[in-house]
Amino acid sequence: MTLSQNGTYHHGDLRAACLRAARELLEEDGSAALSLRAVARRAGVSATAPYRHYADREALVSAVAAEGYRELAEHLSADRPAPSTPDDLAAVAVVYVRFALEHPALFRAMFAEPCDPTGEERVAATEAISSYVRALVRDAFPGTEDTDALSTTVWALVHGLAFLHLDGKLDASAPEVVAQRVRASVFALFTAAPALRTAVAAD
Amino acid sequence: MTLSQNGTYHHGDLRAACLRAARELLEEDGSAALSLRAVARRAGVSATAPYRHYADREALVSAVAAEGYRELAEHLSADRPAPSTPDDLAAVAVVYVRFALEHPALFRAMFAEPCDPTGEERVAATEAISSYVRALVRDAFPGTEDTDALSTTVWALVHGLAFLHLDGKLDASAPEVVAQRVRASVFALFTAAPALRTAVAAD
DNA sequence: CTATGATGTATGCACCGTCCACATGGAGGC
DNA sequence: GCCTCCATGTGGACGGTGCATACATCATAG
Question: What is the pLDDT of residue B196?
């Protein structure tokens, strides 16, 4: 009967300790290192103790992902509290991609897992990001008729940039190069082939 | 000494058999089901036999991913052999996203794995897609000065749309709804907030 | 016809997720 | 103040996994 870290049989706040340990393992050695047993070891607790707080491994990963969503949302809004210009939009996009590159395993856990939509904690956190983007787009594009569609476009663009960098499809060795590319891509939303506008408008 | 599937000690073409089995497992039960042992079982061979052809699990997954890249490239170019208009671009985008939704686990294996850039098979396959997009953008946007930057933007947008649908961030229950949203997003590249163009141009 | 190297087998180890029976001890009713 | 209940943690077991190692088979080159 090994005693828990703090010398008592009961840990005190194992739920939070697991979350923290999981997060650390993820950041240190990637998602492969994120095992329930490793989490338990790091929390100084028996292998099966975490099951009192998380139904299974996926539940724990999901909790970590939800935390990641919250942090991402914070980063975004912290950088530009009241974004309303195209430059703000580009800056927020840069923050989004940088977050992905600075927390690759966490970002993958947030998006690249099979992840059923039943995790209400995750759904709420996602909604926060989604609505932030929508508000940003509304302010930056006052004349747009379909804000939702454009928000989707913007989110997808930035999200895609994040993943392509993360997967090495785009060079991500120098942060400033990445930032510049992200800004250029966002601005390309407005400068792309003026000739085409008429072709589309005629549709 | 169990005999291999075809009754002989040596399998004949275990390399290809492993690839096929891996692909099947991936499509049937997702990436969690893709274990080397399961692959070996399906190929009717001992658990360690695949190691003669693949250094480790990751090497096998990487081979499957490379196959996925080739198939995706085929799908794209098969749908529009000589794409050159905005409509072609939108159609290709729809094919890209549909491929992701019809082969979710494969698509994830292609992009969502840690994946070092050292797999030359993968690099080549990626390059094929990348250059296809570049050519498409060049033809569809004859007046563009920086084709590479715009290609990046287009790929990122479409790729992001694929992932957001895959992760349930965008409703993907009805294929036609998805297709419509993808088309709208691509077209949004040209119709977004004309007023902003001047603001950016002044930069 | 034989030796050799490519291919497949058998075995074992460490680790994993998860189920189960059981131990502990803090909090609330008597 | 004591005692009981139950949330929380322990320990052991089972079947699965990736992978290293030693050995078996057999097609083919000399």
Answer: 41
